[in-house]
Amino acid sequence: MGVSEYKPVKIKLNNSLAGGMYILLTEDEIRYTKDNETKPPNRIYKIQIAVEAVYKNKRCRGKQSFQIPKGTSIAKAVSSLLGKREEMKETLKDKGTLKDEKKVFKKIDSKDRKLSSIYEAWISGKKINQSKNTIRIYESCYHTHLIKLQNKIIDEINEDDIQNLINSMISKGRSASTINVVKMVMKPLLEINDVHLNWKKIILPKNDKKRTFKGSDKEAKQISKALLEYKHPIARGIFAFLLSGRRIGETLQLEYKHINFKNGTFTLPKEITKTKTSPTYVLTPLLLNAIKSQKTTKGRVFDLKRDAANYHFHKAMTSISVHNMVMHDIRSMVAVVSLRNGADIYSVSKMLSHKLLATTEKAYLGDGTERAIEAQNTFNTLLEKPDEIIDVELEDDEFTALKKIYPNAKDEKIFEIIDIMK
Asked: 199-210 burial string, b = 16+ CB within 10 Å, else e?
């Protein structure tokens, strides 16, 4: 069934949250519940959001469609899209259009829908706005594993094909992170060409290996010292920002226009952050010195490519005989050591710019068992601690003796204590 056969139907909800939202249905599917609310079809469906905003004194309009999993209620789908609707409005206000020039997708002629042809078109579009490292991962996955499906027509690819491929990778001992790239490539590649699989039916291995810092505080100090005393000034500046919890991608894309020297802060634009938010951070003396040590005064603060930064990082680690760390592990080290030394989880979450507190908790507190034991031990220690007994020898001047013990107590309270003790 072609997309043209679907009709946008305004969504009806009694809570009035679905303003500007339409569900794409066929003529036969348009129906409502007994409460006169829109009823979803028994399939994967799409909701279209239409927004408008004023850009340069001109009213602009835009619309975008979002796929909703089968079995999702309209109320739940609408609720999940409220944030998207606001993002679309903000984009219209900022740009006057919802079109992203960076995202270029090439539709393949229906006569040539082999996976090999579809993939080449898809990856060429990805190369425009994805990092080289991400493209390298995609290419490796395709040419090593997905190549087995290269001659298959994408319309004929089903859940069993993907599952068999995954099972084959598992039998060969491939890691969970490597296997999960299959979904990262195949899901968007197929969906952009109107092929939708039920990914809930496909069993992917869970990636339980967390790269969490396991070293001692002493080791963390040694690592930090090696990074902050590294001779290369640009790399040293980058390392200073990594030690403040920043991601390497954000650091390398930091520009002078993002820095407010007057207020002593820097703000990362949402275009370069993983969470697509614009967090603001304090420009500590360490970070300020890192910026001042650079030769650049405009454009990007750190004029170094990722591969070069990675080279210097491993060189610094090798100098102290550390061979099992990557640059991203510094974020983990900063978080773990901070929590270990009394920082609360909320503060650490803000430092790492996690969108949800649960993300920080899952990454660094696990299931909470260790924290629960720590809390129980603290309480048990309190119970086992003997009561502090103050032996006051009551002489003729009981008032003076008690006043020395409780200097802030009112006189009436002191006399009350004397009566009780007698």
From this structure: eeebeeeeeeee
Distance CA 233, CA 323 (A): 22
The CATH class for the domain spanning 217-364 reads mainly alpha
Helix axes 115-129, 132-144, angle to 10 degrees: 170
Nearest to 314 by CA among 228, 227, 248: 227
Q: Which parts of the chain register pLDDT below 50?
A: 1-4, 101-106, 108, 110, 388-396
| First-to-last C-alpha distance (Å) of the chain | 94
Query: What distance in Å separates the CA atoms of residue 128 and residue 146, rounded to the nearest whole number?
Result: 22
pLDDT of residue 104: 42
CA dist., res. 141 & res. 207, Å (int): 17
**Which pLDDT value is given to residue 223?**
95
Contact 123, 160 (CB under 8 A): no
Chain centre to alpha carbon of residue 78: 22
Angle (CA) 410-415-420 rounded to 5° is 125
Question: Domain-by-domain residue ranges, the chain?
Answer: 3-95, 115-191, 217-364, 386-422
Q: Which CATH superfamily is domain 115-191 in?
A: Tyrosine recombinase, N-terminal domain (1.10.150.130)
- Two structure tokens written together for 22: 């339409």
Residue 216 identity (one-letter amino acid): S
- Give CA separation, 218 vs 214, 243, 313, 321, in Å: 12, 15, 19, 14
Q: Which residues contact 133 (CB under 8 A, 6 or more apart)?
A: 306
Selection from 203, 119, 105, 188 nearest residue 153 by Cα: 119
CB burial of residue 182 (10 Å; 0-12, 13-18, 19+): buried
Check residue 395 and give its pLDDT.
41
Q: In whole angstroms, what is the distance from residue 86 CA to residue 98 CA? A: 12
CA torsion sign for 113, 116, 45, 94 is negative
Cα diameter, the chain: 109
